[in-house]
Amino acid sequence: MRAHTLTKSALFVGYLGISAAVAVAYNAPVTGYELDIYAGTPASFWGLVSLAVLLSVLVVFWAAKPHVRAAGGALGLLAMTVTVSLPIIRGYYYIGDADPLSHLGTAKVLSSGAMSMTESRYPAVHTLGSVLHMVTGLSVRHVMLVTVVVFLVCFFVFVPLVVRELTGDTLTTYIGLFSGLLLLPINHLGAHQYVFPTSQAVLFAPAFLLVFFLVFYQRTVRLSGLFLVVATTFVILHPQQAANLLLLSGVVVAGQVGYDFWRGVNTDQWRRWLLPEVGFFATVFSLWVWNLEMFWGTLQRVALIPFQDTTVGGKAATRTGSLEQIGGSLLGIFLKLFSVQLLYVLLTGLLLVIALRYVSGGRRWYTRASRTSGQMLPMYLYGGLVALTLLFVVFLVGGVSDQYFRHLAMMMVFGTILGAIALGRGFRALSERLSPSVSTGLVVVVLCLCFALSLPVVFASPYIYYDSQHVTESGMHGYETTFEYQDRSTTFDDIRSSTYRYGHAVGESDRPGESYYAEGNRGIHSGEHGIPDHFANRSLRTYYDRQQYVPVPEADRVRDPVLWEGFRFSDADFAYLDTEPGIDKVQSNGGYDLYLVDPAGARNGTSAT
User: What is the rounded CA–CA span in Å between residue 301 and residue 82?
Assistant: First the structure.
């Protein structure tokens, strides 16, 4: 009775703490560009969220009554939902100053009816944003931020459901819940917490897996129809990640068919095969990517890897050198980003060893399995995971952009699920050999340590040498005014922020990105264009041979001088723009400045406020 009272009291404190955390964050709105969301948010918010998660874990593993445990799990889910909603609560105008801006522009064009779904490579996220915009009346910009949270919550909810479907064990399901709250697929290198369709696809993957497993166990017309809908949705969500799941599904079906042939096929067995469903998935995928030049271009680059010189890691190797120049280290970043992921990878590998041992010995290790074919499902999953791992290695060794981190994100979806199952099995094994209280204590400690290591990397921040990706209202409006009144014969040059991305965001999605820049400055995706580094030491007026606009949002003034310690641009460079004759500030609103560089020396610009 006393324990029951304590758990209910803990729940009361936890839910009260989350309410207070929301109030604290709401009353600390962002007022300008914010480099670090962690430092900009009151410390009390982080303390209250951490307390809520701690109480959630304690209640789940020490409460005796199922409904109290469920309330404890819901507390943890609510705490992390509030955390990932922090940019919305604190009034961030937008998140993501590169691809997300282009996606915002696409959503706006879709909402206006000037573009159809089929004109986008991956229209699902943009379409969902458009629908929410029409239903709620909120701005497209705001609903795109909400869409990000919707997919994050989807991941939180479906990971434990998949674990339950695979194990049928309640405590392991709760371990799956807390494992999902760690957001292991978000690595800030190929998967991000902003509008980035590949990230939303990764977060939607557990929903796909749940339906796939349901069909695997009970192949009915209704479930098969649901799978066809979910598979089609995944293809238009992001074809590249759909290819990963198609590969996995193909391996599972191949294992299913091969195993049945090995044991001897009968009518009852082939009726359970998922060949029609996976075949439909493959057909939809093929039809969608048929005219996608980017997909076939990537496939071509992969096919040519054996015949060309490549650098393992590609851009990652370059980033390592830059990191060292500002006092960071690759090992330090790796430990911050991937220490918990590494633990779950090891747990996944350990589970594979256990599975092989049990299956080879003819013993049942898989509590959800009701028949021999069901018992083989985890082995099929491991086969699919091996295939995804090989694909990741191909992209890594071949140096195909940074897309290997996207594949790593999808692999960590499986790592989260299988690692949680391994942790659950470890909990059961320890309960049998030691006392239940000792095993419970160990699992609680492991989960709390994982949360402590994961919370600082939920958002991009200076902790991992990233800025918050905050896009301010003044910055967006500044660019919008620039595009409205600019002299179209004068082109732009960028410091860090990409002008063409803002052009897409304000509704110029049909304008090619290269058209914003000078004729000889076309490599906008190569990282080789832009204003010269430390331009205060060089005369910009002799660098350009024609008039040039140089936009400077507040983010550019902060990132290099503060975060990257003047690596490419220092305070002196920005001061140079205000003092150099022949360079005029022609627009300013307090969070955005536009300069006109006149190589001829004529004072054509006038300062504006």
Answer: 41
93 closest CA partner among 593, 530, 470: 470
Assigned token pair, 46:
């982080």
Determine contact, residues 493/547, Cβ cutoff 8 Å. no
Place of tokens 């193909």: 250
Contact present, 542 and 598 (Cβ < 8 Å): no
d(CA 286, CA 370): 35
429 phi/psi in degrees, rounded to 5: -65, -40
| Calpha distance 548→541 (Å, rounded) | 9
Report the alpha-carbon distance of residue 5 to residue 17 in Å, rounded. Answer: 18
390: left (phi over 0), alpha (psi -120 to 50) or beta: alpha
pTM above 0.90, yes or no: yes
Residue 220, Cα to own-chain centre: how many angstroms? 33
403, 313 Cβ separation under 8 angstroms: no
Q: State the amino acid at position 231 in one-letter form.
A: A
Taken as a whole, the chain contains a residue count of: 609
State how far the Cα of 35 lies from the Cα of 134, in Å rounded to an integer.
Answer: 32
What distance in Å separates the CA atoms of residue 383 and residue 359, rounded to the nearest whole number?
Answer: 14
Alpha helix (H) residue ranges in 292-329: 293-303, 315-325
**Residues 456, 548 contacting (CB under 8 angstroms):** no
Strands across the sheet containing 583-588: 491-492, 548-553, 592-597, 583-588
Q: For 411-450, what is each residue's pLDDT tens digit?
A: 999 999 999 999 998 988 888 888 888 899 999 999 999 9
Work out the widest C-alpha separation in the chain, in whole angstroms: 87
pLDDT digits 0-9 by tens, 54-107: 999 999 999 989 999 999 999 999 999 999 999 999 999 999 999 999 999 999
Two structure tokens written together for 147? 């869409």
CB atoms within 10 A of CB 201: 30
For residue 229, count other CB atoms closer than 10 A to its CB: 10
Dihedral pair phi/psi, residue 593, rounded to 5°? -125, 145
* Distance between CA atoms of residues 296 and 293, nearest Å: 5
N-term to C-term CA, the chain: 68
Cβ atoms of 446 and 423 closer than 8 Å: yes
| Cα 483 to Cα 476: distance, rounded to the nearest angstrom | 11
CB-CB contact of 423 with 176 (8 Å): no
The residue written with tokens 């330090």 in the block is 332
